């Protein structure tokens, strides 16, 4: 299900940009009041598009959001889009309720990405096609670090005494970073094992 590449209404954009608790250049403080309840049908509409979403659950309340990134519109600015975290509550007709927070990224009037957290469960668009496991997040970091240092797969494989297929699997996220392999990779990258272990999401218990 694709949640991005859709046009946001002016009312939704105004609600997403309503940050009464934030002082930043370019916004009146305090800002003029905005009706943030227009976000309720927007969030519910997006969630309803998840085929497995329980239609009995709906976003009941939302609060003004907090900006995570701000696109000021200035050429060469640090952010290419605006991303906002909007807290709230979801509830069912049976009276159950859970905390809710949405992370919404948009450029102009175009939705770029959407992620929701219901209770302690994160919902968002997948990277891999339907029916396939999501890649391990270490893959993107490892690929970037190798590319920045100009380390080819063949060299990484040789220096870690691993097959090239293993390194390719790591770079694609289809192989989990094992503690011993992380130690060998750190040496080739010229980084501390502790730093790479943290990046790979390994804690002390997994290392033992």
From TrEMBL:
InterPro entries: Lambda_DNA-bd_dom_sf (IPR010982). GO terms for molecular function: DNA binding. This is XRE family transcriptional regulator. It comes from Streptomyces aquilus.
């Amino acid at each position: 299900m694709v949640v991005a590449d859709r046009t946001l209404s002016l009312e939704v954009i105004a609600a997403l940009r309503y940050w009464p608790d934030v002082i930043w250049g370019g916004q009146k403080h305090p800002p003029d009041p905005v009706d943030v309840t227009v976000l309720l049908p927007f969030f519910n509409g997006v969630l309803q598009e998840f085929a497995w979403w329980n239609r009995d659950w709906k976003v009941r309340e939302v609060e003004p959001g907090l900006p995570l990134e701000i696109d000021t519109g200035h050429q060469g600015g640090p952010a290419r889009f605006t991303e906002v975290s909007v807290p709230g509550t979801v509830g069912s007709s049976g009276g159950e309720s859970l905390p809710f927070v949405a992370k919404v990224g948009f450029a102009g009037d175009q939705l770029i990405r959407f992620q929701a957290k219901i209770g302690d469960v994160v919902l968002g668009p997948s990277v891999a096609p339907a029916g396939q496991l999501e890649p391990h997040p270490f893959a993107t970091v490892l690929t970037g670090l190798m590319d920045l240092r100009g380390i080819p797969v063949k060299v990484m494989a040789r220096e870690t005494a691993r097959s090239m297929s293993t390194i390719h699997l790591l770079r694609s996220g289809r192989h989990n970073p094992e503690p011993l392999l992380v130690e060998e990779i750190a040496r080739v990258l010229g980084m501390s094992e502790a730093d790479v272990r943290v990046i790979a999401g390994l804690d002390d218990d997994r290392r033992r």
